Amino acid sequence: MAKNDHSYDTLKLKNQVCFPLYACSKELVRQYTPYLKELNLTYTQYIVMMVLWERETVSSRELAECLHLDYGTLTPVLKRLDQAGYLTRERAENDERLLTLKLTEGGRKLKDKAAEIPSAIAECMGLTMEEFGVLYTLTYKALKNMEERQ
Amino acid sequence: MAKNDHSYDTLKLKNQVCFPLYACSKELVRQYTPYLKELNLTYTQYIVMMVLWERETVSSRELAECLHLDYGTLTPVLKRLDQAGYLTRERAENDERLLTLKLTEGGRKLKDKAAEIPSAIAECMGLTMEEFGVLYTLTYKALKNMEERQ
DNA sequence: CGCAATTTACTTGTGCACAATTATATTAAA
DNA sequence: TTTAATATAATTGTGCACAAGTAAATTGCG
User: Fold this and answer.
1) Which positions in chain B touch A11 (Cβ < 8 Å)?
2) A–B: how many Cβ contacts below 8 A?
3) What HEC string does chain A produce?
4) Is A134 in Cβ contact with B142 (below 8 Å)?
5) How far apart are the first and last CA of chain B?
6) Would you call B16 and A118 a contact, using CB atoms and an 8 Å cutoff?
7) Could you tell me the pTM of the whole model?
8) Per-chain mean pLDDT for chain B
């Protein structure tokens, strides 16, 4: 055997933190699905709407940055949300490159319907308040560390 | 306003644990990409190979279960790994429905090349050993709780 | 036994997700 | 001011990811 046993142990699925993180993230999106279906949204569309519910207006570039999504993903998502009547896409007057997104009345109405979702999802996960806090802190810490490597 | 301020606060991106989990998972897969490119694997293909490196043989059904993937995802992934020569797909003799996957010599060779990946990724995340442990425990706990709701 | 229910896997369709490329507008530098 | 560099966004191509529907083998019940 070329390597010692220890170096292979790290390749076992049960010794990897990456896998439960990946699986948990997918499972979470799956739990959202039935709730979001009532709003005719996917999870990705939902997080875009969350930004707009909070800010009313946002540039495409800022959105891409805060959601960690590139334009290859964002462009078609924004097109669908525009077609659904939840937001508008306009070019900035002073700079034709910039795309400005604005919440519409239709999009604003969704916010009421969505208000009960976070607590429902939290219940699905079944963690204590303290555990949620720890999970939040650690995922953001790892995210920040990985960002800095780009 | 139909709802009180508090119920809307939960809809803010920065108050959601789901979002950093989702973003962290994607960022992790992105960090894997350059390492896995040298092995000609995607992340999903990599976790399939991890199971085979550990077990040599596994049924398609068991694989789907332990990776939390359905056949719609798994079938094409397994086809590509078969074409790449990393595994074989055979029907079980006693039950023609069952698909048995077996690691090939070519697939086994990849294991050596992959041995250094876990520590490289761990370094990217920049967490302490203790933090890794906590993250592992919490994500598996949430995963288990969500599974039980199906 | 004969047939309904179940299990396993595949197929189809939709929507991310991202790398790589392209297009256009703006800014900066020579 | 012309041109090179940069910034913003769209496009293209590949590969997940999953719901819904289909197909075939097996099991179990009458």
Assistant:
1) 50, 53-54, 111, 114-115, 117-118
2) 195
3) CCCCHHHHHCCCHHHCCHHHHHHHHHHHHHHHHHHHHCCCCCHHHHHHHHHHHHHCEEEHHHHHHHHCCCHHHHHHHHHHHHHCCCEEEEECCCCCCCEEEEECHHHHHHHHHHCCHHHHHHHHHCCCHHHHHHHHHHHHHHHHHHHCCC
4) no
5) 36
6) yes
7) 0.92
8) 92
